[in-house]
Amino acid sequence: MDFEDFIISVEPQYQGFARSVNDYMLHNGCALKMATAKNGYVISYQYKAMKRVVMNFIFRKKKLVVRVYGDHIGEYPEFLEAMPDGMRLSIQAAPSCKRFDTPPKCNSKCGGYVFNLGNTQYQKCRYSCFMFIVNDESIPFITAHIEKELAARAATA
Questions:
Q1: Which residues contact 149 (CB under 8 A, 6 or more apart)?
Q2: What is the pTM of this model?
Q3: Residues 21-46, mean pLDDT to the nearest whole number
Q4: Cβ atoms of residues 64 and 134 within 8 Å
Q5: Where are the domains positioned within the chain?
């Protein structure tokens, strides 16, 4: 299994985006890990200096989805306000992190994110908070989110 196997499964109009993200991640200190799941490939990029995953490509209902692990979201909060309504609604609809209320019921690696969006504070699950369907509107914001998160990690590594 290699990256090209994954690319073939991506909708043709989004293959260029997937390739550019792959190139960016590999050239900025990330290791590529590939696996298969019931819905298709899971492509992960782990920042080598911290050994934590920065983002995944996954499939949901045959659509390409990007999950960004926004561990440093508190360092670029204004970014959330600039996102399109659909992406902000996706964040708001994500489940709250159980770790804040009932720690034994949550994945021990989660920890969740605490951040403000508008005038509301959220405590969201790290695994579902920043999951976005790839489309023409979301691509520039997904790209910027990845760049901001990777820069924040590099600054603290």
A1: 54, 55, 68, 69, 70, 71, 72, 73
A2: 0.89
A3: 93
A4: yes
A5: 3-91+127-156
